[in-house]
Amino acid sequence: MKFILLSDLHIRSTDPAGRMDDVVAAQKDKLHFILNYAHQHKAIILQAGDWHNSKRDFRALAMEIQILMKYQTVKIYAVAGQHDQYYRQQNAPSNLSILFHAGFIEHPGVFFENDNIYIHGCGWGESMSEAHHKAKSLMEVENLPYQILITHLPIAQEALFSTHKYIDSKDYLKKYPAFNYTLCGDIHKSFLTTIRGRTVANTGPLVRDGVDEMFHDPYFRIIEIKNGSLESDEIIEIPHTKGEEIFSREHLDQVQRRKDMVEQLHSIEDEKNSDVGSKITIEQAIASIIEDNDIDAETADYLYTKIAEGESNDQ
Questions:
Q1: Rounded mean pLDDT of 175-191?
Q2: pLDDT in tens, 68-117
Q3: What totals of helices (H) and strands (E) does the chain contain, helices first?
């Protein structure tokens, strides 16, 4: 039995800042390629959340439905990411919930009896302990099934930035031994970690919407399960234009400046919290960064917004 594994898609109806190509047209081509590949190889698609970039982008939904209508024989199982849910309300109308209700996508929690494979799911905000409890209970049956988990947990091999909170992939595999193969999403960084025959993988984003993803080449994994074991695990690159050709140089420079300023802010905040810098206020830190970097109004607004977000999260 074959499965196509996809992490975050972030389907959208608008072009991200800094992209010089037609992103909407590019993602249509990618969707056609994936769905046609699944049809040709009789593979089931598993997707790990953040199918959409915006939970109620109905123009994107209309575009998707026209494509999905052409591949109704292709089975798709997915979980919700934070971009798919309306304030964590799973039953509230959203792009993904409409696709679920229309039958284009199905929820995990399905057992393929003939092939003895069970597909679990744990979307954003859902209980991982419940999913693992179910998986452990299936380990007690006589004919042990091959167990796959689709999840939006933030699993990674390493931190992507200094304050990054994530679940280490090796720690994850040690903590949840009942799953044979885990497909994860949320973090836009592809990886594969395998320990003693058990694997966790992230294929990275389909739609590249930021400079951090410039050197990511979109792909999916296709795995085949036979007789209760992993027969093959292959990467299939999705046709795309290289990141160096689709991101503007101006955008890349602007993003790097913003990163440098945020790092500078963190350094000043650390100093402020120490005895040496106890008299430095957050307002002084902001003013210092703007003055030292000759900041334009748009970038200054961005910096103030990031600071306001941080303050609201602390409350």
A1: 95
A2: 999 999 999 999 998 888 665 656 678 888 888 888 999 999 999 999 99
A3: 9, 13
Do the Cβ atoms of 175 and 149 come closer than 8 Å?
no
The yes-or-no verdict on residue 261 having pLDDT over 70 is no
Q: Specify the domain boundaries for CATH 3.60.21.10 within the chain.
A: 2-243
268/177 Cα distance (integer angstroms): 42
Beta strand segments in the chain, E: 2-6, 43-47, 76-78, 110-112, 117-122, 146-151, 155-156, 167-168, 181-184, 191-195, 198-202, 219-226, 229-237
pLDDT band at 253 (very low <50, low <70, confident <90, very high): low
The torsion of the CA quartet 14, 20, 23, 26, rounded to 10 degrees, works out to 170
CATH number, domain 2-243: 3.60.21.10
Position 280: which residue type?
I
Phi, psi of 163 (to 5 degrees): -105, 20
How many whole angstroms separate alpha carbon 247 and alpha carbon 241?
10
Strand partners, 202: 191
> How many whole angstroms separate alpha carbon 88 and alpha carbon 46?
21
Least confident of 52-56, 157-161, 245-249, 288-292: 288-292
